[in-house]
Write a structure and sequence with these properties.
Largest sheet: 6 strands, mixed
Shape: globular
Number of strands: 9
Structural class: alpha/beta
Strand content: 15-25%
Distance between the termini: 26 Å
Strand order of the largest sheet: 5-6-7-3-8-9
Order of helices and strands: HHEEEHEEHHHHEHEHEEHH
Oligomer: single chain
Length: 295
C-alpha cells in the first residue's frame, strides 16, 4: 500500500484540542514520565513474519515480544535488513503477521483505536493546500468544514506553519513538508504515532531543529511514538528507550533506557557513552546478507 492510500485508513474517534504547554515543562518532566507509562499502549506477543520469494522464503521477523507504554517515545534501531519497517507495517496493519498477535490498548487492533504512520516521504496531496492536507482526515471522518478548519489551524500553529496554510506542497521545503505531515497525523489524535525514518532525507540543520520541535510537540500532546531510525545519535537524543533489533531474522536483541533530562546534551559523557554502547552492539551484529536470511 502506498503512503497516500495509508493516510485514508482512519478510525472514527473524537479529536482533541491541543493542550497548553511550555518548553520549560519538558525539562522538568522528562526524567519522570511514570505517570504516563502506567498502561501498555502497544503489545506484541511472539510476532513473526515470513516473505516468499523466487529463491525461497525469508524470515523477516521472528518471535518479537515488545511492549510500548502509554506516552512513551520509543526508538528502534538495527542493521539494514533486520525488519524495522516490516515491523511498523505490521503494527499499522499495512500487512499481517504470520504468527503472534498485536494488541493496542490491550485489544485487537480492529476493536481499538488507530495508528498513523509518517514516512520519510511526507506523502502530501499536491492538489491540496497545506490547510486542506492537515484537515483531510477530519474531512473523511465527516467533521464540518468550519470545525475541521479550526482544528487544523490549531495543529498548524503547533508545528509553526499557520502562516503557510494556503501554500501548496511544491512551495514548501523538505522540513516544512514533514511538519505538515506531523500536523496531519496529530490532528487525528492517534493512539500511537509510527514514524519511519521521517528525517532521513533532511539536511543536518533542519534535522536538529525538528528534533527539538518534535520533542516539544510530543511532551505537549503526550502522544505515544514509535520511531524507526538508522541513526544511533538520533535515537538516543529522542527516545525514552532505544530498542535494538538484530538481523537474521529480526528479533529484539536488547533495550537501553535513556535516563537523561531533556533537552539532552550530545556533548555529555552519559550521552556519548550510551551512543557508544549501542554502536558497538550494532557493529557486532554486522551486515545482513540475503542468503543468511533464507529459510
Amino acid at each position: 500500500m502506498n503512503p497516500s492510500a495509508a493516510i485514508k485508513r482512519i478510525c472514527r474517534r473524537p479529536s482533541s484540542r491541543v493542550p497548553d504547554f511550555s518548553f520549560e515543562d519538558m525539562v522538568e518532566k522528562a526524567v519522570d514520565r511514570s505517570n504516563l507509562a502506567e498502561d501498555a499502549k502497544l503489545t506484541l506477543h511472539n510476532v513473526s513474519k515470513v516473505f516468499s520469494m523466487d529463491r525461497g522464503k525469508i524470515q523477516a521477523l521472528q518471535a518479537i515480544n515488545l511492549t510500548i507504554m502509554k506516552g512513551e517515545f520509543a526508538c528502534i534501531v538495527g542493521p539494514s535488513g533486520c525488519g524495522k519497517t516490516t515491523l511498523l507495517n505490521l503494527i499499522a496493519e499495512l500487512d499481517k503477521p504470520d504468527q503472534g498477535e498485536i494488541l493496542l490498548n490491550e485489544e485487537k487492533p480492529d476493536a481499538s483505536g488507530h495508528r498513523l504512520m509518517i514516512f520519510q516521504d511526507a506523502a502530501l496531496f499536491p492538489w491540496l493546500n497545506v490547510l486542506e492536507n492537515v484537515a483531510f482526515g477530519l474531512r473523511m471522518r465527516g467533521m464540518s468544514q468550519q470545525d475541521r478548519r479550526m482544528l487544523a489551524m490549531e495543529y498548524l500553529s503547533l508545528v509553526k506553519l499557520e502562516r503557510f496554510a494556503q501554500c501548496f506542497v511544491h512551495e514548501l521545503s523538505g522540513g516544512m513538508k514533514q511538519r505538515v505531515a506531523l500536523a496531519r497525523a496529530l490532528v487525528m489524535s492517534p493512539d500511537i504515532l509510527l514514524m519511519d525514518e521521517p528525517f532521513g532525507a533532511l539536511d543536518i540543520q533542519t534535522r536538529e531543529l525538528l528534533y527539538q520541535e518534535l520533542q516539544e510537540i510530543w511532551q505537549r500532546t503526550q502522544t505515544t511514538i514509535l520511531f524507526i531510525t538508522h541513526n544511533v545519535e538520533e535515537a538516543v537524543y529522542l527516545g525514552d528507550r532505544v530498542i535494538i533489533l538484530s538481523g537474521h531474522p529480526g528479533t529484539v536483541q536488547k533495550e537501553h533506557h535513556v535516563n537523561s533530562s531533556r533537552p539532552r546534551q550530545k556533548e555529555s559523557p552519559y550521552f556519548q557513552e550510551v551512543c557508544r554502547q549501542i554502536s558497538l552492539e550494532l557493529l557486532g551484529m554486522g551486515g545482513i546478507q540475503l542468503q543468511e536470511a533464507m529459510i
